[in-house]
Amino acid sequence: MKKLNCFIACSFGNNDVDNICDNSIIPILKDLNINYKRVDRITHNDNIDFKIIELIKKSDFGIADLTYARPSVYYEAGYLNGMNKQVIYIARADHFIHDSKDINGNRRIHFDLITKNIIQWNSNDNFPKTLKDRIKFIITPIRKNVVSINKLKETESQFLKKSINDRLNLIQKQAVKLLKSNGYWVIQSRLNRKHSIAYIPKDQDRIFLFLFDNRFNKNDLQYFSSSFYSLSFLETLDVDINKIKEEVKVFNSLKPVTNSTIESALQIFENIHEKVYYYKGKNQISRYIFLDNIKSEISYKENLINTLEEITYNS
Known about the structure:
By secondary structure, this protein is of the alpha/beta class.
């Protein structure tokens, strides 16, 4: 498993802070097989702000020492937090005690972080054990997430190695299986080697599921929509058309879909409704959902589940 990265934010040029970092924080991180970065100890030729942001983005979590109340430390901790990365806060023990002589507030925890579970340190305390336990606590889910991400990347890699036709077949099987398990009944039709379709009625609503390969342009949409509406599915279904409340068209593409293509698709299907569709004069709701850039069966299944939940909720 790849090593995790920890960003250390602290006041520079203070012996006590350097000592706690060198004698406690860094040894603990090394013992846990975690890389650490302190920007003042890295050789670089970049703008310091850009380098800090780069290191934060590459980190998995951070340790912020609030000793001496450096604005930069608060900024860096906020940046980590804004990226949804865990931050362990530490500070020298006397920063929790009000000192009337500290008129600039350099030796106290500011109000916006005082409610955090901050670990105190001094020269003879239990700090190393407490810090190590806290790090072990927060890295457990982080490492699990790393494993999940790696598995997903491997799944995506295997999926993308398959032919376009095989990928479409896998996606269609995944969709049909999921839809049937959710109470839909499915009629499938293969219009040509490039497109496949599932027509899924449930109760008095409709979901049309369109599966596309790499092509997803205006000509394909025109051909696909015309072919689709020429099919006589509804003649074989025991459905009261007058009770249909909503139609949802879900477009699934192996490749990303541009905004211009989406606009073309919407216009094409709206024109079909106006010219040849049989819902004239009725008030059905028609919605369009695009699930594009399909990278694996797993990610597609999750997106389709979310889509079905959204459809059910709005219905």
